[in-house]
Amino acid sequence: MNDTDILQHLLEIEGQAATLIDDAQAKADQRIKEAEEQNRLAFDEAYQKLAAELEIEYQQSVSTIKSEYNQLLDQYRSDLAGMPRQNEDFSALAFSLLMENENTLNKVNEGELAKPLGSGLARFLS
Helices (H) and strands (E) in the chain — how many of each? Predict the structure, then answer.
């Protein structure tokens, strides 16, 4: 074999090696692409599942809170309905606070006018 034949043979081997490397790289790229696709699908599935679970939990929490709120509101309304109304006493107190002298304000501060109106108003005024 002469030098030209040897160089030609080496160039052919190098070409074959380059082809093998290119094929291997293409296969590796394809496998990476497939793995990324599988991972994306798995992530999307897990994400949708978790989002659905969290949505259900959220809706249950909202429902529970609304129910508790309605119970508290109903209790408040029934408590208000059960309280005696003292419209005349309240009107007299309001009139005395707005229209009369400082002596009435002192009576309110001392609790004298608030006592007949009930403990709720007494707490409000103190």
Answer: 4, 0
Are 98 and 87 in contact by the 8 Å Cβ rule? The answer is no
Q: Which amino acid is at 82?
A: G
Q: Give 3-state DSSP helix, strand, coil % of the chain, rounded to 5.
A: 90, 0, 10
What distance lies between CA 63 and its chain's CA centroid? 14
Are the CB atoms for 122 and 115 separated by under 8 Å?
Answer: yes
pLDDT at residue number 44: 97
Distance CA 97, CA 100 (A): 6
Angle at 74 between CA 70 and CA 78, to 5 degrees: 170
pTM for this model (two decimals) = 0.47
For residue 86, which phi and psi values (nearest 5 degrees)?
Answer: -120, 65
CB atoms within 10 A of CB 7: 10
Please give the angle made by the CA atoms of 34, 40 and 42, to the nearest 5 degrees: 105
